[in-house]
Model the fold of this input.
Amino acid sequence: MAQDSIESVLRENRSFPPPSAFTAGARLKPEDLKALRDKAAADHVGFWADLAREEIDWHEPFTQALDDSEAPFFKWFADGKLNVAYNCLDRHLETRGDKTALIFEGDEGDVEHISYRELHARVCRFANALKAKGIGKGDRVVIYMPNGPHAVVAMLACARIGAIHSVVFGGFSAPSLKDRIEDAQARMLITADGNYRGGKAVPLKEVADKALADGCDSIETVIVHKRGGLDVRMQDGRDIWWTDAEAGQGDDCEPEWVEAEHPLFILYTSGSTGKPKGIQHSSAGYLLGSIVTNKWVMDLQENDVHWCTADVGWITGHTYITYGPTAIGATQVVFEGVPTYPEGDRFWKMVDEHKVSVFYTAPTAIRALMKLGEELPERHSLDSLRLLGTVGEPINPEAWMWYHRVIGKERCPIVDTWWQTETGAQMIAPIPGVTATKPGSCTHALPGIAADIVDESGESVTESDKGGYLVIKEPWPSMLRTIWGDPDRYKQTYFGKFGDRVYVAGDAAERDDEGYFRILGRIDDVVNVSGHRLGTMEVESALVAHSAVAEAAVVSRPHEVKGEAIIAFVILKGDSGAEGLAEELRGWVAEQLGAIAKPEEIRFADGLPKTRSGKIMRRLLRSVARGEEITQDTSTLENPQILEQLQTSGH
Ligand code: WTA
Done:
């Protein structure tokens, strides 16, 4: 057993029932959730089909809900036709035309309110501009832009004409952009001169020019939005300013009615090895996942002001900025900048100024802001908040408690939402008016999501606190459809282990005795000490629970006796690097989790290698801990210089 399953050593006894005032106003009450769960359990496919009929405006209705004849290449609602942009915009014009769709705040604090009517007009105008450049259904368009309304407009304009967008986060380098353009064989690139983030100029066109300089032959047109006032070179016959492309275009554009399975977008995810995977999503199924999770989990309602701090370059920005909130007619904040500019209270200042009620961010941001102290959030009223969310990484219980106490004032439920680029929408998450939450747990699978934990042989792990592979045992509408251009890799990566129906997420997870899920980290990051397999998240959480520690990352190194030994990289709060602290922390972990989890070595550092979406790259730390040369691709690192520092810091 010890070889097969993952042992969980972290115990969490705190539980927070939803505040009754929250439940009273929530979309889903306990009886609603029960009805949804009962229905999903009785008829998985029928459950989703009914929701698809209720939540989506169809141009032509579908007759078959799920086609699983070519599993794992599933099709949902395949003979129906719709347009996603129509669902996000046109259907609100009569009832919510003047309602604010986007509240944009720029890096320097400039603010713009955009109504649904205005957003609709902008999307139509730009869609017409794309058509005038010869872009049509099925063409790939790469969007490499700053976070803001123009990026949202570009995405929705593609959706309107059936073009397939691939958004590449503005922090990616020229080679990364080039790889993505070439893999998708994109005909058009939409970019900007550049912009300012945290007061620093981020050139985009210049980087794009480098990407296009050798290769990228499929690109015919580059549309450039003027945002940063940076000098750029425009290539005759290829490059055109956004405003020139739009000149003379009308504010109406008949939507292209596409089949439900028509690809809405591709989004590249780096994964832990090999070249990035172009995750391909569908139109209707993806839209449905976006809509229901924004209702069930984010609880977005007519008067809410939603703020998802992600960039549209990530899946979180796709589902919880561009598509989901607009599809249900919500008002939301879109932010160009960073949480620490001009000061570390930027998020809290904006929450106050825009009266944000639903706030969704990442654990990495919470840990960074926690490190800056409570004085910053205390400068502002956070009274408008009613719901908080997190996504992207396991949230350590201490960070969860800080978020709960200092930001939510013990009044706001926290939805810790587990999902992936591949799943399209949230999968395991609390229903905020119903579920009692526990720090560090994403709680239970949503209705219609067949999540389970299995061992090496594919058997469900029923014992509490034993971990295993997180899997989804039935297809769901918002799942990825394939890897762009590489169906074999799709099949192998996600369905290679337990057969064509069982999606393997690549994460390790466990359930406690009340069935609460806890994500232990990526399965590849699990460490094996004396035959005990431990998730990295648990040791990291124990370290973060120590008053001197801001952040921690845990990896292993081969060990003669134990098989593997735990090495912890620790970032301290302030300069509290007291003599003997390493020893103290080792003892602290042993006390919290047991001797088995005691780190062999603690290394202090100023930072951790992170992806640009804020995830710790443990595989790089593993090389550092083992004294190996780093051969992996580091081009997607947010802070490459930190590796050098870590390598030379030694013992
Ligand atoms: C991790 C982000 C623990 C997980 C939407 C997953 C999480 C990967 C959580 C996907 C969470 C995401 N708790 N871990 N609430 N949310 N993860 O594709 O390892 O950027 O597989 O999608 O992030 O990251 P991606």
Summary: The CA atoms of residues 129 and 279 lie 27 Å apart. The chain is about 30% helix and 20% strand.
